[in-house]
Write a structure and sequence with these properties.
Number of strands: 15
Helix content: 25-40%
Structural class: alpha+beta
Shape: globular
Distance between the termini: 42 Å
Strand content: 25-35%
Largest sheet: 7 strands, antiparallel
């Protein structure tokens, strides 16, 4: 993607809190990512700590829904995270040098893939200022049936909302008064290689996967601005909320 085209996304990102970039990667690149993911799952999954692999049903390995820090387990994903192609988008939108933090794999298994609760990423990040972007890229066809991402336009301009505990593994906290926002949702069906980038304060969620046979696989990349720092007070409050002791 040319720099001129990337620069043109900045205005809508600042206004809406997200940008949608169709065809960011072509079929060859997406196929390679899917192949490397399959390889990583086959070779590295058994040795990963439990906190880096999340299942819908822990007794059934076919229900794998999330892998965290893929860049630690396979050099291919480290190269993606640090590549100019993705970093350039992050730095254009943040208007600062960007630090690649993690590469994650998201899936919603057919029939049992649970909804992703409405949330803002900075409730988890605890950054001050909240300058970070999350990139979500479809690795297969994603639509309303198998759980496309939904956003609340402009929500990043209204501060951090109240979150509370959920029953969703991997997304322990969700916005507690989201009912008033549902009418404002904008759904984003996506094709393989389409990229959505959102601000750390943008409210988003996804439905569960009600398809009988289709998965919903996607790759996530997170970048922090180099000036963003962890708000220790907020972090400690978050850890206390989820009953985790900071070490």
């Amino acid at each position: 993607m040319e720099q001129k085209a990337i620069s043109g996304l900045k205005e809508s990102f600042d206004r809406d809190g997200y940008v949608f970039i169709p065809g960011f990667l072509g079929k060859i690149d997406v196929d390679e990512i899917n192949n490397k993911l399959a390889q990583c799952i086959e070779e590295k999954l058994p040795g990963m700590p439990e906190k880096h692999k999340i299942y819908e049903d822990r007794s059934d390995e076919s229900t794998l829904k999330t892998l965290i820090d893929l860049q630690v387990y396979h050099s291919f994903f480290s190269e993606i995270l640090n590549s100019d192609k993705f970093r350039q988008v992050a730095e254009t939108l943040l208007e600062e040098n960007a630090i690649g933090k993690t590469v994650e794999y998201f899936n919603k298994p057919p029939r049992i893939g649970k909804p992703t609760p409405p949330h803002q990423d900075n409730y988890y990040f605890n950054l001050k200022p909240p300058k970070a972007v999350t990139m979500w890229m479809a690795l297969e066809e994603v639509d309303v049936e198998n759980g496309c991402v939904r956003y609340i336009k402009g929500s990043h301009l209204k501060g951090l909302r109240t979150h509370g505990k959920t029953q969703t593994l991997g997304f322990s906290q969700g916005i507690t008064d989201y009912e008033k926002d549902i009418a404002e949702e904008i759904a984003f069906p996506a094709r393989p290689g389409d990229l959505i980038v959102h601000h750390a304060l943008t409210i988003h969620r996804a439905d569960g996967n009600i398809s009988e046979s289709r998965t919903r696989k996607a790759l996530g990349l997170i970048y922090f601005s180099e000036t963003a720092e962890i708000d220790t007070e907020a972090k400690n409050a978050y850890l206390k909320q989820i009953d985790v002791v900071s070490k």
